[in-house]
Amino acid sequence: MIIAVDGPAASGKGTVSRKIADLYGFSYLDTGLLYRAVARDVAAAGASLEAESDALKAAQSLDFSSLDDDSLRITGVGEAASIVARYPSVRATLLDLQLQFSRKPPGAVLDGRDIGTVVCPNADAKLYVTADPEIRAERRFLELSNLGESVTREGVLEMILQRDARDTERADSPMRPAADAMLLDTTKLDIMQSFDAAVELIKRKIGLPGT
Ligand code: C5P
């Protein structure tokens, strides 16, 4: 059983995905962490984000156990991730890892940008989670401020818009809803309301665990 969750930064897809995985007893993979880790490893090697070959090397030697790293959450890493995410060779390398993960029994929830369209086009349920950019920027602003980062609301909105553009306009596996994705707009919803709405949509499609 595979549940695919896609959507832009700070749409709430990560929190919703984690909670869905808990509810169903499935494994959960935040695929953004893979791209973030590649960007981190490129920088750590003193290599260039602008060189596909350097990013590919980092993707090929990616250590799954290094994904549990708080430094992957900081602002610049998300932006850097969207640069290495443009490279087809990096995407192809990370695709294998994601496919292996998606086969974990009894099921897996994967969240990202291209899960329903490219990684798991045959997923049992697909969600595309969105929210207005201003709301997403406010959420990210509060998150980063809580982490002690000195950011402004305007600066975070600008970053969110730039990242949306980079992710939707790239040639390989751009961010977009799969034709059969169920849309969930969390603009006016808090975490629990978003989760409840997601569960309703998934229940309609595949039922509850054990049913
Ligand atoms: O989800 P997160 O913000 O951690 O993702 C960081 C970046 O990684 C995204 O902006 C996107 O460029 C890239 N990404 C991707 N495909 C995925 C997941 C993330 O291209 N499945």
Number of helices: 9
- For this structure, the CATH topology is Rossmann fold
Summing up helix and strand content along with how strands pair, one would put the structural category as alpha/beta
Average pLDDT: 95
In sequence order, what are the helices and strands, one letter per element? EHEHHHHEHEHHEH
Portion in strands: 5-15%
CATH class category label: Alpha Beta
Name the bound molecules: cytidine-5'-monophosphate
**Overall number of domains:** 1
Strand order of the largest sheet: 2-3-1-4-5
For the biggest sheet, the summary is:
5 strands, parallel
Describe the overall structure.
This protein has 211 residues and is an alpha/beta fold. It is built from 9 helices and 5 strands. Helix 1 (13-24) crosses helix 9 (191-206) and helix 2 (32-44) packs across helix 4 (75-84). It is globular, with a radius of gyration of 16 Å. The model has no long low-confidence stretch (mean pLDDT 95). The site of cytidine-5'-monophosphate (C5P) has 15 residues, from helix 2, helix 4 and helix 8.
